[in-house]
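Appendix B. Chain record.
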Amino acid sequence: MVVRLIACFTLCCFTTSLRAQSDPEYLMEIGGGAGLTGYLGDFNGKLTRDLQPMASVVARRLLNPWAGFKFNASWGKLKSSSADAESYLPEFRDDQLSPTREGLPYTFSNTLVDVSAVFEYNFLPYGTGRDYRGAKRLVPFIFGGLGGTFVNGGGKSTFTGNVPIGLGMKYKIADRLNLGVEWAIHFSLSDELDGVKDPYNIKSTGAFKNTDCYQALQVTLTYSFMARCRTCHNADEN
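Structure tokens predicted for this chain:
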């Protein structure tokens, strides 16, 4: 009787161990996102002002449960006014001291298209816990990379590069569904996202000297696919 109990216990432990890593580990994700974007530049320095809706298409190539690459294409608007400026801008003062009051305050509402590729790093291994030993369903992450920015409005168009840096949280709802929330700031290489170049009339040098930025806060939902080869997966663990 004792031998049978020991045998049953051993079999149960062995079965549980197999189950613990029985879920496939996926290499790709695709989905979409929605959120808010906001202009940060000469006419606005507050994160909560003039936020506009945005939508995104998201794809990920996962290297392992700790890291991967994310590709993001977003559409939104950048909006602000010279009335929001906290700095002294002589040409855009809407008062008696302004050189010209015609057309003041200056306002803009430009269409924004952003395409970026970033490297993501999870602070904890991400997964169901049955695909990778020790993986967690809820993990924080950071990311950084390179992107391109296209802005159109007011009869002007601007195309430039940007450097996105951000952080977020992701949660595995199910084996193939992933919910995420992330915030990023995009440091652009241009000072004309608002349609005005150097309103301070001060010459500056350097890639990011007196250039415009924008932020993006979004919630994403992605679907996992392309399961990793189990033989290759086991080989990686040995």
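Further analysis of this model is presented in Appendix C.
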